[in-house]
Amino acid sequence: MKDFWHRFRANKGGIIGLALLAAIVAVALLAPLLFPGNPWKMVARPFVPPFEGMKFPLGTDTVGRNVAAGLAYGGRVSLLVGLVSTLAALLIGIPVGALAGYFGGRIDDLLMRVTEFFQTVPSFALAIVIVAIFQPSVVSITLAIGIVSWPPVARLVRGEVMSLRQREYIEAAILQGLSTPAIILRQILPNAVSPIIVMASLMVASAILLESSLSFLGLGDPNLMSWGYMIGAARTVIRQAWWLSLFPGVAIVLTVLALNLIGESLNDALNPRLSRRRS
Amino acid sequence: MRGTTFMKIATRIAARLAKAAVVLLAILVLNFLLIHAAPGDPAVVMAGEAGATDDVFLAQLREKFGLDQPLYMQLGKYVWDVLHLDLGFSYRQQMPVFDLLMDRLPATLLLTGSAFAVSLILGVAAGVLAASRVGKWSDTLISTVALLFYATPLFWAALMGVLLFSVVLGWLPPFGYETVGSGFTGIRRALDIAQHLALPALSLGLFFMAVYSRMTRASMLEVAQLDFVKTARAKGLSRAVIERRHILRNALLPIVTLAGLQAGQLVGGAVLTETVFAWPGIGRLMFEALTQRDYNVLLGVFFVSAAMVIVFNLITDLIYGIVDPRIRAQ
């Protein structure tokens, strides 16, 4: 563990990412304290420009809502959807990959065909169709993102399981009479955890991008303020009010950037052999 | 000898085509299931908001689509219709969905094709530049910019492009396919369209520009460590020749693989780009279908975009076989 932290710290990007993410999470968690009241409520006249007073540091939007409050509450949605949809993708991808890699043969063939299918289908278009048909809500958005993002997980886990399956200690476990689920869950998967963690951290970033794209198109949860919605609503007034599109976008870029930096650092720290070869 | 190579390529193509057909069929089944999994009456789903209140109209639809028949019969009919290029009817636009799609497809092909070329050329060029100056400030700059582009949502990059190049600088038109009512023809018209195309294509290509530049850089640095490059150096070849003929050629292989992945991202991203720039392609059509709850059109766009990806993958597959003789020999 100490060794891991040492290696993680060696990468400046990871530390910057961690600090950035900590700040974003803090603002998102403290949103109800920082901005009591509903972020949808009108609080001032519309189109107050930013940096003009301490009351609305980032200005107000087309109907007089506080942009800063919207950003804080939007962060909650982005982070939550990013995290839960990644968990959903792991819940689909890990079993599929583990079964395919462990059993091989026909099961592998079948599962990999399904995986390939979902990799071929344009993922954003599929996400749009799913959310539109099942009506936009946090649940349908999270599920849609999970459904379109599991295939890389399945491929990764399959590869790991396939190579671990050949090891002697697995043969020993089989000879000892351990049940198959026990072997997969307790002997194989724990040894495949680090690449999964690296991939998951990068997946949260792309899930946040997907969520913001969906809500930009008007497919966000109608009851929740989100960064993508804010940009989508401000799109038509970009000439008059540049700040309405600029600030939520910066928030998305910073969050995604932080997660990508952390993911790369984790990769360096958890797979030291690979990363040394890379640079 | 020649004949057997040809046979091998022919069987490979046949196998790929068969696989593509199976995937398309699977997408049709998925479409069908989605219509039926939707909450509420499939007839209402298919009619969209247009006819949802008219009971007589819904009853007609139910009869027309055989919604009283068993599910597998309905699926059979659906697949049969699509095979005959019948993707249903848009009651909103009062037009067959297939005709709507064919109207809009050329604009999307132009946009995605340009975005692909832009991202590939600029991305690889930036990657080569960064790899040949590894550790210097230009390498750091390129890598940092790539990292930023990698984290930028497509639609936001598009909007910021409009803000900078159209609103502030006034260099490029903010939206549309061409100047309406200009009466331009021939080369003037092509130039006009190219001007309108610049921002959409650049913003759509931005993400993969970053991906390609990072891949090219990493891949070039890796190939540079290999023994045959050392041999070339020992032979006394110049740096430029080694970089171009020995390293870049081999470093490009993983990039062709990535190109297949990009196809899906491009057609998905086209929905966002075309929405921002009012580009008259199938992506914009999908957005319109969303706001009008026109599910027939929505599923039609999904099917055609998937078909586009499959065709693109077939092409990259063939190119890969030509570029890399090791695969051709298999």
Automatic annotation (TrEMBL), chain A:
Arranged from A to Z, the UniProt key words for this protein are: Cell membrane, Membrane, Peptide transport, Protein transport, Transmembrane, Transmembrane helix, Transport
GO CC annotation terms, alphabetical: plasma membrane
- Main location class: membrane
InterPro entries registered for this protein in UniProt:
BP-dependent_transpt_permease, MetI-like, MetI-like_sf, OppC_N
Determine the domain of life of the protein's source. Bacteria
The answer to whether UniProt assigns keyword Glycosyltransferase to this entry is no
Q: Which Pfam family is one of this chain's hits?
A: OppC_N
Report domain ABC transmembrane type-1 positions: 75-263
| Xref: SUPFAM superfamilies | MetI-like
Task: Please give, as recorded in its UniProt entry, the membrane topology of this protein.
Answer: Multi-pass membrane protein
Q: Which family does it belong to?
A: Belongs to the binding-protein-dependent transport system permease family.
Please identify the protein, giving its name as recorded. ABC transporter permease
Species in which this protein is naturally found: Paenirhodobacter ferrireducens
